[in-house]
Description:
With 176 residues, this protein is of the alpha+beta class. The protein folds into 2 domains: 1-61, no CATH class; 89-170, no CATH class. The protein has 3 helices and 8 strands, in the order ααββββββββα. The strands form 2 sheets. Strands 1, 2, 3, 4, 5 and 6 form a 6-stranded antiparallel sheet that branches. Helix 1 packs antiparallel against helix 2.
Amino acid sequence: MFWTLVTAFVAAFAGAGAGFALRHLSGKRLPKGIVPVAAGLAMLASTVALEYGWATNVLKTLPADLVVISERQHQAWYQPWTFARPWVRGFVAFSPADTVETAEGSGILVVQLRLHERWQPPMQLPILVDCAEGRRAQIDPDTTFDDTGQPENANWIPAGRGDPIIEAVCGPTATA
Length: 176
């Protein structure tokens, strides 16, 4: 947020400079009010550009094989342009390279979900995904594994074929 504020101030000075230059080039036929108007428009434009570019810029810093599962789009009355084109406020993703099977042949995968939200620190949430059964479970401190890699005490959610996490991790062939 600090850098957004710095960007807005730099844009304001650049916009004011452009307004001053336009006034000077017009032989002072433009009113003096062009300077603060240009500063305000530059601040608004830079802030809007930062909001719309946030998700793309974050994705550039993450692994190349990252798969975005879902996005949360933002619309607000105080940002009327978002009704024409909402901006991405957050997303859930995972990296197939970070996905491992609990034990060879168990059919249960451990997936590191990445949760990114604007103005919040990123989080990683480990979950279990059973592609054959079409279910998933969050790994919590009570979850243990037996010798065959099967989880014990897992709180399974029967998500089924329409679940975006199951479809992203297993593909559209998940059963249940």
